[in-house]
Amino acid sequence: KANKDMHPNDTVIDVAGRKIGGGHFQVIAGPCSIESREQMTEVAEDVKMAGAGLLRGGAFKPRTSPYSFQGLENEGMQMLLEAKKATGLPIVTEIMSAEHLPLFEDVDVIQVGTRNMQNFQLLKELGKVDKPILLKRGMANTLEELLMSAEYIMAGGNEKVILCERGIRTFETSMRNTLDISAIPMLKSKTHLPVIVDPSHAAGIRFMVEPLTMAAIAAGADGVMIEVHNNPEKALCDGKQSLTPESFAELMKKVRKTTEFF
Ligand code: PEP
Ligand code: MN
């Protein structure tokens, strides 16, 4: 179902009037994790002012260590919904277990993180949902495996899948991951689904978010997802790669110019 040879027309996914794919570019922005009502609302207002089309924020966090901040879960979901109401921005947030689906009723796009790309039971459950799924590439998975995971969701009847390249594990350790820029044209040749890039998790370092965003646009991505925090030094998760609202606004100006050019 994801195969371009069988379905040559690009899929355009409409999220509350924001189109992604088929020449429509979107920016998703917000904090890695929802930390408080104040933080979420403030960042939401800031990214909206800067021109982001969708708001992100994690309530269920798949952390490497069980002793790291795990997210505000249910309470965080309520804060994210409040930020959605306050700004009118559609929201994107990660699901870790299908059991939590009832909490996602007013979520606009459900994210599957890198660590769950091959959680086939979860993918099957999301195949029954009538909402777009943002499927992130596993950090050590091939493009074929990513497409097969999209196929799991689509096979269940949900054909609204957005693919996301977020960096892969390589021998290079200077960055958190290595952005596989080649994944964009390759995926676009194989599938009609929208392909977006997450430069924040690929880089792991703030200063690289902008050049990787520009590279993603040049390579033909249908959007980017960027982490923004109102106080990155104090962030409970991923502060090093988070942009300040000011630097995000600067980046948005360049994104607007560059997407026009391409
Ligand atoms: C995230 O988007 O916050 C996240 C956890 O990303 P990834 O699954 O790509 O690590
Ligand atoms: Mn993060």
Describe it for me?
- By secondary structure, the protein is α/β, with parallel strands linked by helices.
- The protein has a single domain (19-41, 72-261), classed as TIM Barrel (Alpha-Beta Barrel).
- Helix content is 34%, strand content 15%.
- The protein is built from eight helices and ten strands.
- The chain has helices at 37-50, 73-87, 120-126, 143-155, 183-190, 199-203, 209-218, 245-261, and strands spanning 13-15, 18-20, 26-30, 54-56, 91-94, 109-112, 133-136, 161-165, 195-197, 223-227.
- A hairpin with a 2-residue loop joins strand 1 and strand 2 (18-20).
- Helix 1 runs parallel beside helix 8 (245-261) and helix 7 packs parallel to helix 8 (245-261).
- It is globular, with a radius of gyration of 17 Å.
- The two termini are 28 Å apart.
- The model has no long low-confidence stretch (mean pLDDT 98).
- The structure holds phosphoenolpyruvate (PEP) and manganese (II) ion.
- Residues 32, 201, 227, 237-238 line the site of manganese (II) ion.
- Residues 32, 58, 62, 113-115, 136, 166, 198, 201 line the site of phosphoenolpyruvate.
- Its EC number is 2.5.1.54.
Quick structural overview:
This protein has 262 residues and is of the alpha/beta class. The chain contains 8 helices and 10 strands. The structure holds phosphoenolpyruvate and manganese (II) ion.
